[in-house]
Amino acid sequence: MKASWILALVAATPMALALGQESSADGADLVTRAAVKKRVLTFDCDRMPEVCHNMCFATNCKHKPKQLTWDKPRSSVEGKRRRTAGCGSNNRCSQKKLGKKGFNCDEYPFASSKQADRGGQINRCVPERENSRQGSALNQFYHSRGKYRATGCKSKKNCSFTVAFKGSKTKTIGPCKKTPNCKNDGNQWTKTGPVRRDEIEEPQQPATVVEYKLRRSGDTILASDDLQPGDLVYHIVERNATLAEEQHSGHVFNEFAGVEQYDYMNDNMDMEEDEILERI
Ligand SMILES: *[C@@H]1O[C@H](CO)[C@@H](O)[C@H](O)[C@H]1NC(C)=O
Ligand SMILES: *[C@@H]1O[C@H](CO)[C@@H](O)[C@H](O)[C@H]1NC(C)=O
């Protein structure tokens, strides 16, 4: 108990704050932070391996923030963020540029998060239905829909959450592994072109990826954020998998709308809550 208390305080030092957590640095605030549970949103890498690849590459290899803040942006703001990510109209993943159809430009940090305003987002061409699964999961979490609707972001802006990964495929996706493989497979870009290994600002070492066991389900997740026992973990569960597949494969992404474009899928999705039990 005492050790975890000290760890929590260490995690809230100004250096950790500079790495993407927002807060003022006065003492009282630090003590409050130590008691606040983090919210963790998991992405099912069995169902969205390409989307996971992008998120893992960005967080584990390029040190993009793994804790994001949903600021409930207007769609014009989201549109601007997509453009700075290289994912605006007629992006490289469009049928015209890519030469094949069925792909969307996926970006991290998400256009729905404040961290996207820093620029330098990582993008990847991913199957449309994976992009749809990711967007609908965020929508469910931001607006606290489905089971456990008293939790998540409750439609309130400035809601911070950590991204994490679940599913048996996770450990087979290079940049998601416990020892991340950070070689660019050619599909990791920024607005200016393919991400190179030798970029000047690039830190040398991949992030430390930790496996955590969950209390209720006994499942494990991978995350590169420092999580503590009791931190809340949310999964999106599809009620009727056949219907979900139909919806996601039929969804036409609207680049001028936010995550609310997935509202019609809400009734087929539940958000379930679990919590961190321990590090493995
Ligand atoms: C959200 O955060 C922004 C920027 O940090 C701040 O200006 C705004 O007042 C906050 N809004 C709410 C509702 O907390
Ligand atoms: C699940 O969805 C499919 C496709 O819409 C539908 O045909 C089927 O009846 C649904 N199953 C249940 C148990 O509701």
Q: Into which percentage range does the β-strand content fall?
A: 15-25%
The biggest sheet, with number of strands, parallel, antiparallel or mixed sense and barrel status, is: 7 strands, mixed
Strand runs, count: 11
Q: What characteristic shape results from the CA principal axes?
A: globular
Overall average pLDDT: 89
**Hetero compounds:** 2-acetamido-2-deoxy-beta-D-glucopyranose
* Low-confidence parts: 4-27
Query: What is the radius of gyration computed over CA atoms, rounded to a whole number of angstroms?
Result: 18 Å
Helicity range of the residues?
Answer: 25-40%
Structural class: alpha+beta
The number of distinct structural domains comes to 1
Distance between the termini: 17 Å
The main sheet orders its strands as 2-5-1-10-11-8-9
Please give the count of helices: 8
Secondary-structure element order, N to C: HHHEHEHHEEHEEEEEEHE
Protein name: Deoxyribonuclease NucA/NucB domain-containing protein
InterPro entries: DNase_NucA_NucB
Keywords: Signal
Organism: Daldinia eschscholtzii
Description:
- This protein has 280 residues and is α+β, with helices and mostly antiparallel strands.
- It has one domain.
- The protein is built from eight helices and eleven strands.
- It has helices at 2-11, 14-18, 27-35, 49-61, 75-84, 95-98, 128-142, 241-250, and strands at residues 39-44, 67-70, 103-108, 122-127, 159-166, 189-190, 193-194, 210-214, 220-223, 232-238, 269-279.
- A seven-stranded mixed beta sheet has the order 2-5-1-10-11-8-9.
- The longest helix is centred in the middle third of the chain and has 15 residues, at 128-142.
- It is globular and about 45 Å long.
- 42% of the residues are buried.
- The model is unreliable at 4-27 (pLDDT under 50).
